[in-house]
Amino acid sequence: MIKRIIKAFLARQTPVFCKKCIIENSGTLDIGNGSTFGTIINKSVKLTHIGHSGYLSNTGSIIVGLNTRVHKGFRVSNEGVIVIGDNVYINPNCLLICKTKITIGSNCAISWNVTIMDSDLHMINGQDNSKPVLIGSNVLIGHNVTILKGVQIHDGAVIGAGSVVTRDVYENTIVGGNPAVQIKDNIRWE
Questions:
Q1: What's the sign of the alpha-carbon dihedral 137, 61, 92, 86?
Q2: pLDDT tens-place string over residues 143-185
Q3: Prediction pTM value
Q4: How is the chain split into domains, by residue range?
Q5: Residue 171: closest CA among 146, 138, 144, 141
Q6: Is the backbone of residue 99 left (phi > 0), alpha (psi -120 to 50) or beta?
Q7: How far apart are CA 55 and CA 117, in angstroms?
Q8: Catalytic site includes residue 71
């Protein structure tokens, strides 16, 4: 199945996956035009993190909108459903671990070394405690942020660098710290 998907993508003008990408796929991939994983569109941009290969393990479903770019060094482990909107930029070395569902809205900017996970990856008292993660549109996430299961980050929010987000973030607010707390509200970022 993956050979058929990659063959269809090769007909596109822009390659979808970087050359050093490990893909293990028995699920479904739906990637919109202009979207890439680990590739660079503008050849004049100097790349950092050269040599970092991408890793995609997908037994679930991944749906990516238009003109979304997931930079080199991405790691995705998906058993559930990952939905990424249009015009999203995910910087190098980000990790998405999905057992149920992770949703990222449109026009989001996610810095490097961000981890988003909807599961603890272990059972407690025999129960899987996975809970979906929802990231709204126009959200800015700083570097080295961790977003844990069950969190909803609403539209227009800004997550400060190094934060650990353990609870919901309101619309148009800035949060930061470990655990992340509200720093300011009624903000607009462009």
A1: negative
A2: 999 999 999 999 999 999 999 999 999 999 999 999 999 999 9
A3: 0.84
A4: 2-38+48-184
A5: 138
A6: alpha
A7: 16
A8: no
At 130, the amino acid letter reads S
Report the pLDDT averaged over residues 113-127.
Answer: 86
List the catalytic residue out of 49, 52, 71, 122. Answer: 122
pLDDT of residue 17: 67
What is the rounded CA–CA span in Å between residue 83 and residue 65?
Answer: 8
Assign 165 to helix, strand or coil: strand
Task: Give the total residue count for the chain.
Answer: 190
Cα–Cα distance for residue pair 144/124, rounded to 1 Å: 27
Structure confidence at residue 52 (pLDDT):
60
CB 108 within 8 Å of CB 141: yes
Spatial distance between the Cα atoms of 1 and 22, rounded to a whole number of angstroms:
15
Better-scored residue on pLDDT, 169 or 125: 169
* CATH number of 2-38+48-184, picked from 3.90.1150.10, 3.40.390.10, 3.40.640.10, 2.160.10.10: 2.160.10.10
18-49 burial by CB neighbour count: b if 16+ within 10 A, else e? beebebebebebebeebbbbbbbeeeeeeeee
